[in-house]
Specification:
This protein is an alpha/beta fold and 214 residues long. It is 24% helix and 31% strand. The chain has 2 domains: 2-94 and 132-211, CoaB-like (Rossmann fold), CATH 3.40.50; 96-129, no CATH class. The protein has helices at residues 27-38, 68-76, 136-142, 159-173, 203-211, and strands at 2-7, 12-13, 19-20, 42-48, 61-65, 85-88, 95-103, 109-111, 126-131, 147-153, 177-181, 189-193, 196-200. The longest helix is centred in the C-terminal third of the chain and has 15 residues, at 159-173. The chain starts with a strand and ends with a helix.
């Protein structure tokens, strides 16, 4: 089967040397790609260039991505190809940079035009954070016949909240399943579908269940 696995973080540039990103290492997505490859599937691993996981990447095709816009473009470029499954495990940045303001000589906030490297000598800089578009919400339109499995990493609340978010993602994005994990969920993972959920203690048990969805 032809599979795409996304892994690791996107980043959003503030200027040419600074960026907004998250703590994703890319480990889970990389290990899933390795597992599917070992099982004989034809795997493309799209991995964030900021991923820090040093493990081997054994997918047949490994391509890096940078920003959310860049990952979106690489996924959309695969539309029209025969893709049997997409495992969207990457940690896409929730925010990008919007308007910038800085105080003028009188202390009034005025629009600030960024340079290639914003100097700190000018004092405070006020930056608007704008939500990034959700890539997973567009996947069904690009891949109408593909199995699409998303991820929901929840930090706040409890297990019920994490599962509720996973079900909402499935309903809102017309995906086939969602893996819930993170501090809110607690130890392990839950594979959530429209028909129910199943808990897995670790990736050794989760990955075979994901393969069965292809």
């Amino acid at each position: 089967m032809n599979c795409i696995v996304t892994a690791g973080p996107t980043y959003e540039p503030l200027d040419d040397v600074r960026r907004l990103t998250n703590f994703s290492t890319g480990r889970l997505g990389t290990e899933l790609a390795n597992f599917l490859t070992a099982r004989g599937h034809r795997v493309t691993l799209l991995i964030g260039e900021s991923a820090t996981w040093p493990g081997e990447r054994r997918a047949q095709f490994v391509k890096g991505f940078t920003s959310t816009k860049n990952l979106r473009a690489k996924l959309k470029a695969c539309a029209g190809k025969k893709i049997d499954a997409i495992f969207h495990a990457s940690a896409v940045s929730d925010f990008t940079f919007g308007k910038m303001l800085a105080p003028d000589a009188a202390g009034k906030l005025v629009p600030f035009k960024p340079s290639k490297k914003i100097s700190t000598r000018g004092g405070n800089l006020f930056v608007e954070l704008v939500p990034t578009p959700k890539i997973i919400a567009e996947l069904r339109g690009w891949f109408p016949k593909t199995r699409i499995i998303g991820w929901k990493f929840e930090a706040d609340g409890g297990r019920a909240d994490a599962l509720r978010s996973a079900r909402k993602q499935i309903a809102d994005c017309a995906t086939d399943a969602c893996v819930a994990n993170g501090p809110a969920y607690g130890q392990g993972f839950s594979l959530v579908t429209a028909r129910g959920k199943k808990h897995f203690a670790d990736t050794a048990k989760l990955f075979p269940a994901l393969e069965k969805m292809i």
